[in-house]
Design brief:
Length: 124
């Protein structure tokens, strides 16, 4: 059950609700995919437009929990992509072996130089 915290104006979850513990379990056990994206100089605006379409693809995948794309302040052609997955396999098998991933590649991969290294992290 959600309610409004009048002091902060933010929704809060009651500790007694089962949903709270499911949420905590999910975020403790989630996998964080991290990729630093170097975009070809002069192509950042096009990349951002393409990413707006591509994020619809990834957000529809099984095991997807959320993502952020952030632009680097010091290097305006560099971004970091953070994607939260329920399991590693949701990304490495489910997404990467899907027809949706082929669409993702067509939309985005030609903007990268060099191609990004993608790594996965979990909370310790």
């Amino acid at each position: 059950m959600f309610c409004t915290n009048k002091l902060a104006g933010q929704p809060r979850i009651h500790l007694a609700e089962p949903f709270f513990w499911i949420l905590i379990y999910t975020f403790i056990n989630m996998i964080l995919e991290i990729a630093i994206l170097h975009i070809i100089q002069g192509k950042t605006a096009e990349f951002e437009l393409a990413f707006a379409k591509a994020q619809e693809i990834i957000s529809s995948m099984e095991g997807y929990l959320g993502h952020e794309l952030q632009k680097c302040i010091e290097h305006n052609h560099q971004y970091i992509l953070l994607v939260k997955w329920d399991t590693l396999e949701n990304h490495t098998i489910g997404f990467r072996n899907s027809s949706e991933y082929q669409e993702w590649k067509v939309l985005l991969h030609h903007f990268y130089h060099p191609f990004p290294i993608v790594e996965h992290y979990q909370i310790v």
